């Protein structure tokens, strides 16, 4: 599965075999596959200040959910990219490119995409994103009020790809004295039986240009089954970024990815000892 224009941006990805195993577990039971929770993943990357670019932080999260009421989506994924920058120019000015494939200069939001058919830096998305800066939402948390409890603002952009049926919501928020670009996407990966059009739309950087015949809404099906809303997911992800809490969170492991420091949180199955202790 390709979630970004630069495939190596993630240290953790989803492969067709995992979709197959997740669907087998759903159909036949725990002994026949893997849980959807095992596909959940969060990655935070720090970009240092350079002679041409300001420092910034990016977060990617992925949650999986099987949507049984859908006839075409199968395993659905909700993804969020959050880019935390100092000002508007950091999010709207192209970075300097050194010519190296894995260069740290290939920064977000320019390596982000709505889908394999529509890049975030394409003229139409960037035009809409620029208009969102006129009235960004506020996400500063007050003692008596949590971000997820605030009324939803209508200052967002919601594109949908006519080819692969990817649904997206893009918004700008003020957060932690910085500006946060938040991109939430919903996709279907199919039932894991064959590498059909639903899978191939999400598995290639270039993308299959054949239009999806079924136009079911992946966001509606996912949110109908998800234990928490996408707004709650945004609040949770922002809490990791606030004052660099991810550096202190023991659930995050730190290492380097192509010279970039990253912090990753993956799903860990409970051990048998832990399960027995929790039952006693």
Task: Give descriptors for this structure.
280 residues, disordered C terminus, 9-stranded mixed β-sheet
How would you describe the overall organization of this protein?
With 280 residues, the protein is α+β, with helices and mostly antiparallel strands. The protein is built from 7 helices and 9 strands, in the order H-E-E-E-H-H-E-E-E-E-H-H-H-E-E-H. The chain has one domain (7-279). The protein has helices at 16-28, 88-92, 123-132, 197-200, 218-225, 230-241, 272-279; strands at residues 41-47, 56-66, 75-85, 137-138, 156-157, 167-175, 178-188, 253-257, 260-266. Strands 1, 2, 3, 4, 5, 6, 7, 8 and 9 form a 9-stranded mixed sheet that branches. Strand 2 (56-66) and strand 3 (75-85) form a beta hairpin. The N and C termini lie far apart (41 Å).
Q: What proportion of the residues is helical, as a percent range?
A: 10-25%
| Terminal residue distance | 41 Å
The SSE string, one letter per element, is HEEEHHEEEEHHHEEH
| Quaternary organisation | single chain
- Number of domains as seen in the coordinates: 1
Instruction: Report the uncertain regions.
Output: 141-152, 271-280
């Amino acid at each position: 599965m390709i979630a970004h224009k630069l495939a190596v941006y993630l240290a953790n990805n989803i492969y067709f075999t995992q979709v197959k195993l997740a669907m087998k577990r759903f159909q036949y039971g725990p002994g026949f596959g893997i849980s959807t929770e095992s596909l959940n993943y969060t990655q935070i990357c720090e970009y240092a200040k350079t002679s041409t670019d300001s420092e910034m932080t990016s977060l990617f999260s992925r949650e999986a959910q099987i949507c049984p009421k859908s006839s075409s989506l199968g395993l659905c994924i909700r993804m969020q990219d959050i880019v935390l920058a100092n000002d508007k120019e950091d999010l709207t000015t192209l970075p300097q490119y050194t010519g190296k494939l894995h260069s740290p200069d290939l920064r977000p939001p320019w390596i982000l995409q709505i889908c394999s058919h529509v890049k975030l830096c394409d003229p139409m998305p960037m035009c809409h994103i620029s208009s969102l800066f006129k009235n960004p939402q506020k996400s500063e948390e007050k003692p008596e009020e949590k971000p997820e409890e605030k009324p939803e603002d209508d200052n967002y952009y919601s594109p949908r790809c006519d080819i692969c049926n990817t649904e997206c919501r893009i918004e700008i928020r003020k957060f932690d004295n910085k500006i946060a670009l938040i991109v939430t996407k919903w996709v279907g990966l199919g039932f894991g039986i064959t590498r059909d059009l639903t899978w191939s739309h999400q598995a290639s950087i270039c993308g299959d240009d054949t239009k999806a015949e079924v136009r079911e809404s992946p966001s509606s099906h996912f949110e109908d089954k998800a234990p928490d809303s996408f707004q709650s997911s945004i609040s949770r992800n922002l809490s990791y970024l606030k004052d660099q809490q991810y550096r202190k969170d023991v659930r995050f492991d730190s290492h380097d990815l192509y010279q970039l420091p990253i912090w990753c949180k993956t799903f860990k199955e409970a051990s048998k000892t832990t399960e027995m202790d929790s039952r006693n």
